[in-house]
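Throughout this chapter, every protein is written as a compact record of paired, labelled lines. The reader may check this reading against the record printed directly beneath this paragraph:
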Amino acid sequence: MPVSIVVGGQFGSEGKGKVSLELVRMATEGRIAVVRVGGPNSGHTAYDRSGRKFALRQLPAGAIDRNADIVFPAGSYIDVDVLLGEIEDLDYPRDRIFVSPYANVITPEQKAWEVDAGLVSGIGSTGSGVGAAIMAQVAREASNFPLHRHDAAHCGVLEPFLRDTTALMRNWLDAGARIVIEGTQGFGLSLYDGGYWPKATSRATTAAAALAETGLSPMDVDNVVLVIRSYPIRVAGNSGPLPGETSWEAISESIDAQTNLREFTTVTKKLRRVGHFDASVVKAAIACNNPTMIVLNHLDYVGLEADLDDANSKINDFIREVSDAIGLAMTHFGFSDRGMTPNPSQAGRPVRA
């Protein structure tokens, strides 16, 4: 110990990157490391201390302050061009980036295969090649499968970053480091247990799955953070059911917003679909992840942060409704893209509402 895992409780874009960054900033350990599992088919957004906004697909948002070690373990999927571009944009210290030789490298052929297979139009896939890379790995050079696996050990530009990441992290943990695993997407998109297959992603998106991709032990984990949002989203197109689907205009009108609220996906830049809060997928995520923290984000779509002080405000009514619906009290709240506020009435692990 100690290892924190950040996962999403709905259909992605819950604000996991922001929460990961907050956990890094809250950490008191001498060494902090952030692990990015999954691949570049989802983006994480956060602001550095100077207020500059970054929307990252490959580097973890938790490392935006440039003061943490970054790890890409064996269970990660790397688009080399995206990674090198983000390293350049962030001016990240290259001696603090570590890549497992077993990490998967996404190829142009794998991206093209996803497009040709109809996944982009059929399930709302980003076409980033992650699913194809996973299939190539599982196919194990089968003669009747057209794609081949490529790993970081045989990618020349990644050679300076190569390390035995499991041994490295074990040494860090033994010396008292804090490791934050930044999960991707959300529980409702999970391949195994999200409940929406085939409108799902190509991986499991639970805390246990993220840990397995990282190469560490369950005995290392002391904190599982489930991130949810006031109005869940799904990506544009034929991406699957969204209970209580509504419009951005309706949400804007409900809070008398001066301008229409609208969100676009980080990868494809398409307008996201949005729905009213639905407890069913969150309750399933809670059962699977057993979180020690629950962060309710995007509360600015309901009311003002100042209204938290008014027990009878619309925002507190909404928080109570969510708590009653999922059976647990939130430990933290989030407004817009920055920071998170502890629930003053809730200390420690979430309890039954």
Q: What stands out?
A: The first helix runs from residue 16 to 26. The longest strand covers residues 221-229. The chain has a mean pLDDT of 92. Residues 107-149 form one domain.
